UniProtKB/TrEMBL annotation, chains A, B:
Residues 3-285 form the Prephenate/arogenate dehydrogenase domain. Keywords: Oxidoreductase. NCBIfam families: PRK08655.1-2 (NF006408), PRK08655.1-4 (NF006410). Gene3D superfamilies: 6-phosphogluconate dehydrogenase C-terminal like domain (1.10.3660.10), Ferrodoxin-fold anticodon-binding domain (3.30.70.380), NAD(P)-binding Rossmann-like Domain (3.40.50.720). SUPFAM superfamilies: 6-phosphogluconate dehydrogenase C-terminal domain-like, Anticodon-binding domain of PheRS, NAD(P)-binding Rossmann-fold domains. This is Prephenate dehydrogenase. SMART domains: FDX-ACB. It comes from Methanocaldococcus vulcanius (strain ATCC 700851 / DSM 12094 / M7). InterPro entries: 6-PGluconate_DH-like_C_sf, Fdx_antiC-bd, Fdx_antiC-bd_sf, NAD(P)-bd_dom_sf, PDH_C, PDH_N, Prep_DH/arog_DH, Preph/Arog_dehydrog. GO terms for biological process: tyrosine biosynthetic process. Pfam families: PDH_C, PDH_N. The keyword Zinc does not apply.
Amino acid sequence: MKPKISIIGGTDGLGKWFARYLKNKGFDVIVSGRDIEKGKNVEKELGVKFTNNNIKAAQEGDVVIIAVPINVTERVIKEVAPHVKEGSLLMDITSIKEIPAKTMEKYAKKGVVVIPTHPMFGPSTPSLLRQVVILTPSEEHKKSEWFKKVYNFLKEEGAKVIIIPPDKHDRIMGIVQGLTHYAFISLGATLKELNVDIKESRKFASPIYELMISIIGRIIGQNPYLYADIQMFNPKISEIHETFIDQCQKISEIVKNKDREAFVKIMKEASKHFGSEAKRGAYYSDKAVFALTSEIENLNKLIGKEIAVKNINSNKIHFGILKSIDDDYLTLEKNGNEQKFNILRVDVFSGEELEKLKRKHLKRKHIDISILFKRDVDENIILKLLKDLFDIDIVDIYEGKNIEKGYKSITFRIYGYNKKELKDKEEEFLRIIKNIGGKERFSKIKKLKN
Amino acid sequence: MKPKISIIGGTDGLGKWFARYLKNKGFDVIVSGRDIEKGKNVEKELGVKFTNNNIKAAQEGDVVIIAVPINVTERVIKEVAPHVKEGSLLMDITSIKEIPAKTMEKYAKKGVVVIPTHPMFGPSTPSLLRQVVILTPSEEHKKSEWFKKVYNFLKEEGAKVIIIPPDKHDRIMGIVQGLTHYAFISLGATLKELNVDIKESRKFASPIYELMISIIGRIIGQNPYLYADIQMFNPKISEIHETFIDQCQKISEIVKNKDREAFVKIMKEASKHFGSEAKRGAYYSDKAVFALTSEIENLNKLIGKEIAVKNINSNKIHFGILKSIDDDYLTLEKNGNEQKFNILRVDVFSGEELEKLKRKHLKRKHIDISILFKRDVDENIILKLLKDLFDIDIVDIYEGKNIEKGYKSITFRIYGYNKKELKDKEEEFLRIIKNIGGKERFSKIKKLKN
């Protein structure tokens, strides 16, 4: 039988994400949370069980997952860990690991397996496929059956699993998340303090400044409480902050003293430390920059042509003629109406991709045309030749009564999106047909309202 | 007559770039520099005149452009500016503007027009098209004929021209270049100081950390002397450094005190200052990240298929079967030999683009096949139908002797890259032809050695 899974704080964020994911995988899932109304809604939405009693949820689970915000994780572990059944598995999914690992080990009963976990993704991720999940169990728990089960489950779901001790995790995350957030938030605060007009400054921008501004914008727009906690609950962060401030001060001093050689030495040493990663960085950022500029250049080539515009968030698709591009916006014209779209928020389709989308999303009309061909003609070869020029199928083949001897009637169906287009296609089709040995029998246009 | 242009320091870097560009535009160009051997080579390479006497170059030019490194710009201006002819134009192309502007105004004779200039691009740029060029003339010189000429020239070349006072330029550049370089060099030094294994750290990386690492790698790999000078010669840089260090210290203190609300306030205020630019940043960085991950996903789909790989630097093209992808490398197989390419250093082509490249770069073989069609058949329509399935042309049309009455002979030429491929194509071609009213006359394969 599949284990029963209790998710403490499963009514929100990544906890809710796991509740849905595991429920869909066929597990029996209980979620707990303080807010009864929200809990009832999640119960209905996901088809899981809800309780507002964390301890009860902890008592019932074969697997108990702590999924509360970082700042209350320690308190909630102390509250529920002693109630987890012997033989059960206790996990947390916080972005820091040293504190939760120690607290779970200390407060869980003997016989409870502890696997502190850090899923390196947010609740907008569709599945575990290719996502990084970090596990930081003790040497003892690493040998447990539960660990094997968790590991195998994650691997089967396509996740990239990394196993390291909790303190090493926090040091690396102190860099990967902590230093990154810290530096960009500080940059954002600096630009505010210096009262820099961001939009204006982009006029002068190198692609790298543009990238930096984007990352700052991205980070300062996130949930500030989560970002505060990622800084505040990482025991390694002070050392990292201090080292960064030291380096900033050192370089600032060097610049003040116009000590060129000292400045050059710092850059060279950093570059040496990076080794081949410095070159990789140049290549990688080139690609990122190039991807963005070439998107705009490709768009410019499409002005005056038909395109489809798909909103990245809503997935809604719009068809029309690309009229113009200015700044971050493109203008689409359809039946004389103009609509503006933020280029950064849409995917643009043209050519073959546009045709595919039209077939999928627009109502096609069609015309049927019957053509006489000699009996020994292979209609599949004819169709193959025509497929490149027309959206076309064969809907009927007929020999016998009313058909000249030695001939067969092949009825082609040509699709289009309006009457004018179909008329043009019909003409072109007949012109081709008479050059490849076909004779028109009769044609009729169907569904031609517009 | 076109003005004579003297470029002081025109044997290297952006000075040499302008020498080439202006020479190609038909100007009479003199370059000066200290290194006689280098100068002689540039003279030969670009077809310009060289002198190792800066003063002489300055005396001769109708336009004199100072293009020496930042750290010697002031000294060279003092040396040459007094020798620029009355009625001439004096410019510099340094990344800082306050010091050169003041020095040029002070040392140039009355009657010399001064236009301090900052071209926002490097010598790897192909042309002025879409490049940003900043001009920082005084109000007086802004009214001059020379200014109109320069402005119009840049506009005609497709550059984006920005006109601002030199001190405002230095402040904005202190942000756009100065703060950006400073922050990323400090980050690089920090990662070195903390002895972070960069490659290892990327395993844990979020896309944003990956971007940050790339930008650091890119910046610390540049010419450190140029980067030192950009910091050291900008009069606004101290204030910017200090503000940044203050913000870092303030946030570090807040984190140490676990003052969540203060942290949240800083993020929110920065976000408010960014306004709609915060969201734009999120969108823009999304696109950058997506462009990179989707490139890898698209590559994965091409495994086992024929592709072309073009080296971004050398433009050399390789054809082969994509065997595998690991880390940053792809393996290409050709005639049993395998070759590895850094994915970040190549563009990959498949499908239609691959076909275009093959036609351009590989030696095509061909086969000619003569087919009898009725006289009234339009061979252009037949060719159009076949073009999608074959690399094909019509090379001869013949009626008369030896040809059945009422018929004409159309000779098609089908191209391919080897004998086997051509044989297959011939078979397919004949199968099609007999279904569309054609009769084989004769065929011959040419250039079939392999």
